[in-house]
Amino acid sequence: MRFWNDGHSTAKFVCWQCPRLHWVQDAHTNPPAPLHISVEGEYKWQPLRADGIGDFAPDDPAFSLDLFDELVADLYQWSPDIDAEMEL
Predict the structure, then answer these.
(1) What is the pTM of this model?
(2) Phi then psi for 2, rounded to 5 degrees?
(3) Could you give the 3-state DSSP secondary structure of residue 55?
(4) CB-CB contact of 18 with 37 (8 Å)
(5) For residue 40, what are the CA distances in angstroms to 20, 54, 57, 75, 78?
(6) Gap between the Cα atoms of 86 and 21, Å rounded
(7) Which 3 state secondary structure label does DSSP give 17?
(8) pLDDT tens-digit map of 41-84
(9) Of 1, 13, 47, 86, which is most buried by a Cβ count within 10 Å?
(10) How far apart are alpha carbons 73 and 43 in whole angstroms?
């Protein structure tokens, strides 16, 4: 994702791997895709988990899982459903 600074007329890229902005698009190179992914319903967390990564969204571009649109939509709906159940 590109961050545009109107005041300085410069663009930097938001880093998915560290809390910084970088001048080049892929400063760290893409992380390797996780080999083992689990689906877990936990309050206020994304539905997918991987060792060393934690939770992430089903359509997170950093992992390029290329899931079916219907599955992504179902996972996005399932996560708030878990939150709603926990809030009862």
Answers:
(1) 0.58
(2) -100, 135
(3) strand
(4) no
(5) 29, 11, 12, 10, 10
(6) 36
(7) coil
(8) 999 999 999 887 788 899 887 777 888 999 999 999 999 999 99
(9) 47
(10) 18
